[in-house]
Amino acid sequence: MHGTAMDQHHGMLATPDYRFLLESLPGPVMVLLPDAPRFTIATCSDAYLAATLTQRAIVGQGLFKVFPDNPDDPTADGVRNLRASLERVLASKSADTMALQKYDVARPDGSGFEEKWWSPVNTPLLENGEVRYIIHLVSEVTDEVLLKRERERHVKALAESEARYKTLADNSPVMIIRCLNAPGWPMLYMSKAALAITGYEVAEFIEGGLLFGTLVLADDIEPLQQSIAEQLVRGPVIQTNFRLRRKDVEIRWLEGNVRLLTLPGHGEGYEGTLTDITERKTASVLLAERADALERATIAIKAARIAPFTWHVARDFVETDALGETLHGLSAGEALGTMASYLSRVHPEDSEALAASQRQLVETRQPGFMHEYRTISAQGRVRWLRSVGSLNTDDGLLRVTGAVMDATIEVEVQRALEERTREMERANAELDEFTYIASHDLKEPLRGIHNYARFLAEDYADKLDAGGQHMLKAVSEQADRMQRLIEDLLEIARLGREPMKQNDIDLDKLVDEVLASLSFSLAEKKVDVRKQPLGRIVCDRVRVGEVFRNLITNALKYNDKPVPVIEIGSRPSSTGETEFYVQDNGIGIKPDFHARVFAPFKRLHAKDAYGGGSGVGLAIVKRIVEAHGGHIGIRSAPGAGATFLFTLKGEHLT
To answer: Cβ(475)–Cβ(453) under 8 Å?
Structure first.
């Protein structure tokens, strides 16, 4: 080969020995000047020209003019890497080996590109410690070597990919599966998430033969199979939801995303993921329920004629919806406006109280308020409203927000009821007064009738025949009966007239006193009295004593057994209250008559049977119990005795 002008210009490179050395190197070589960023081509071997499919005319040109760093050029990556390598050589003054990479070299005839795999080495030639030249030696890799390296790289990349995939699969909360398309879906592979999701170890599926399908809820099997069949018509990808019963019998919702494919060595199967969506499903159901509840609440609010309102305190502006405007007597589209305008719609008797309530709310920062007031429409219609609201400063702006509802019917009914109650109380008071006076006034003439009957019986007995004496006796008995009725009426009147005197009372001591007062009658009939502890209670001592006296007397009177038994005690009721009882083994009462026995002057037997009586005793008992806030009932059947049970709302102390 003959040296070029550039060879002669650079002295040492122009010698035949150098040219021989250049041409004898094991691969294409090019000599570059260190004039970065140009990197002028000083010379190059014929092998380089042949390898790069270029002409010797490149000598003297800048390297990156001959091989431009053009993003559209297929060789762009290699050119950029070459520039970076040359700059590293200049900086380090040491050789730099570039990684194996592909170069698409343009053919001289313009017919396209030829693929080259090169592993370049850039070595500096130093003179006096400075870089004089850079030797760019190219080692071209053959197809065989390249394929071997590619196989090694592919195997390594595949191993790394599988390792990453396994790590990802084992640490993912999503269960990755591979199963056969067969009954029960036998599993070929499951990630570690299977334990957390199903409660079973992976080995129980893979080695133990546990079929995944046996965990799916029976109600979901058919819908799941139908969903799979429908989706397979459209393609191999399937997404479906179903429920699964874990090993601990807990029910969980799963979402499956799988693909139908052919599994080598196994035939048709599925591969994909199963995700536990229980929380998401629960949240979705809860959200739907809340939306439904909100819709129902909105409908209820509209039906109840409840309107929202907001008073923007700083702007002094009150706003509401169409219903609120109607409730305040406004025409369609007419706004409430300022608080003063709003108050102008309020009844004059209520306006000042409402204004004071609003001022106090703002000035004292009360958390909330409730107010009832009347509004007057332009047509003069009066409507009662109930307004509830609270102070709100969430965004730094003072507002009063709440709701207003039409309470006209409720208030009018309540007021009518209160007036009716007052009328009834007045009537009852007058009736009690009349009963007391009438009963008191009747006692004196009855006493006279009784005395005259007794005088006649004593002084004129020998002058009366048997019929006359019988009639005289009947008059005396009727006078006694009327006397008892009047005394019972006075007792009822007294209960209504005298206030309750409630104190801490020892019921055991009180009942002992009642039993002592009845000791003669109890002993005469040889009654077996069994008293259980009663404790203390806050009550009216005299009235509660009458309750026990009447109930014990009744148990004694309506008993036909040779040995009457009366038990008195207390026990907790089903509602948690203390329930007192008086129980006997007497004649009992038919269930049809249980309510009737508490009516005044109602007897279930003939007037003279079982010692007679006015039929007022149990009515008095009922009134006393109810005056204490309690209630009384009876459990009885004919021949099986009777148990009277009652409660007293006073605090039961023991």
So the answer is: yes
Residue-wise pLDDT tens digits, 25-80: 667 888 999 999 999 998 888 878 777 767 777 888 888 887 776 555 555 677 88
Which fold does the domain 500-647 belong to in CATH?
Heat Shock Protein 90 (3.30.565)
Complete DSSP assignment for 532-543: ----EEEEEHHH
CATH code assigned to 413-494? 1.10.287
Query: Facing residues of 262 across strands?
Result: 268
SS3 state of residue 603: coil
- By DSSP bridging, strand 175-180 and strand 267-276 are antiparallel
pLDDT of 9 strictly over 60: no
CATH of 5-141, one of 2.40.240.10, 3.30.565.10, 3.60.130.10, 3.30.450.20: 3.30.450.20
Residue 4's SS3 state is coil
Burial class (CB in 10 A: 0-12, 13-18, 19+), 499: exposed
Pairwise CA distance, residues 391 & 426, whole Å: 44
Interatomic CA distance for residues 552 and 549, integer angstroms: 5
pTM of this structure: 0.33
Q: To which residue do tokens 């190059």 refer?
A: 44
Helix runs in 274-407, H state only: 278-303, 322-327, 339-344, 348-364
* CA–CA dist 192, 396 (Å, integer): 52
Phi, psi angle pair for 281, to nearest 5°: -65, -45
In this predicted structure, what is the pLDDT of residue 495? 60
Closest by CA to 505, choosing from 647, 653, 628, 391, is: 653
Comparing 169 with 99, the larger pLDDT belongs to: 99
Give the pair of three-digit tokens for residue 440: 């008191």
The CATH code belonging to domain 304-406 is 3.30.450.20
Q: Using one digit for the tens of pLDDT, what is the confidence trace for 626-640?
A: 888 898 889 888 888
Nearest to 509, CA basis, from 543, 482, 541: 541
Quote the CA–CA distance of 6 and 60 in Å, as a whole number: 7
Query: How far is residue 438's CA from residue 416's CA, in Å, rounded to a whole number?
Result: 32
Q: Which residues contact 450 (CB under 8 A, 6 or more apart)?
A: 476, 479, 480, 483
> Measuring CA to CA, how many Å separate 425 from each of 230, 246, 421?
77, 68, 6
Strands (E), 24-78: 29-32, 41-44
Q: How far apart are CA 523 and CA 354, in angstroms?
A: 71
Distance between terminal CA atoms of the chain? 128
Domain 172-282: state its class. alpha beta
| φ, ψ for residue 564, nearest 5 deg | -65, 140
